[in-house]
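Lay summary. Proteins are chains of building blocks that fold into shapes, and those shapes determine what they do. In this project we predict the shape from the chain. Here is one chain we studied, written as its sequence of building blocks.
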Amino acid sequence: MAADQTRGEAAQTPDEIRGEARGTAPVPLSVLDLVTVGAGYTAGDALRTSVALARLAEARGFHRYWVAEHHSMPGVASSSPAVILAHLAAHTDRIRLGSGGVMLPNHAPLVIAEQFGTLEAMAPGRIDLGLGRAPGTDGATAAALRRTDRLNEGADDFPQQLAELTRFLDDDFPDGHPYRRIHAVPGPVQATSPGGVQSPHRPPIWLLGSSGFSARLAGLLGLPFAFAHHFSAQNTIPALDLYRESFKPSAVLDEPYALIGVAALATDDEREARRQVRAAALNMIRLRTGRPGLVPTPEEAEAYQFNELERDFVDSWNANVVHGTPDEVRAGLDDLHKRTGADELMITANAHGGEVRLRSYELIADAYGFGASA
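And here is the predicted shape, written in a compact code that computers can read:
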């Protein structure tokens, strides 16, 4: 099969990227799962919550469900997104599943192509491949993952790694390239074998970022872009502006499509929302000061004596967490959409217990009038 024909068949149609707003939501709503582990719970508990949450998200009409790669963090059990996504694919039928994201410099591009080709074979037309260039951890852990201490090299080589990964997914290395006879399987090469039939789908690539680098690259390549507003809110609007200004139409998209990750927690009682986000903020303080652990209970956070710097951090951090009653959260999400013009909001609910997270998504779906099933 000719390379240009292969690439054309692998090109993504807009509906594999763009979602549909449901109920009274201004844009599609999706889920970002960090598979958080609270004090008193196991990783198994967290993963069971993820299955329940994915099924809830599918039933209530959330558009997609992504899992984020993190390492060496006791309170985050999502070190292996592909493994988790395979498990979620077995427990869902319709919702899009993907990585938000896989940290490409941590992995060989061929390995990622193989993993996500396998996922695509398991759940045809439902898999997204979101890619980031950060390590998703501290420098020492990144060095262990990559078996090198030259960490900047991985980030600087990101465009080259991305191009290599794309060619493995499309199976279109040119003649004379050293990888011309290497194929990611499952993948398009199977259609070239006698009697071979290959799915017309290929996981669409998204670029993830928290600054301007990936925003510009996504725009230049005509790819969809996901911005980490939930931990880099000050950069959200500049990055989205840069993405839109840099955008060049491609076989993937004819116009920009950007989602933003949003920390949001709805509870039946406003006070409970404040308790939960305070505990999540304490967890973030510990992470950023080199003391990562399990997500503390609200009771532990209430008893904790924050110093002045820590109180300032909590106030600043929680100012970008949309939390409160369902009506308050809906108003906050609507306002964020108006300010950013995001095409999709991907909600991550950080709380100590899985039942609180599940309830939050139910309340948000109710607030926007989502139906009982997709």
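What the prediction tells us: Residues 222 and 254 are 8 Å apart (CA to CA).
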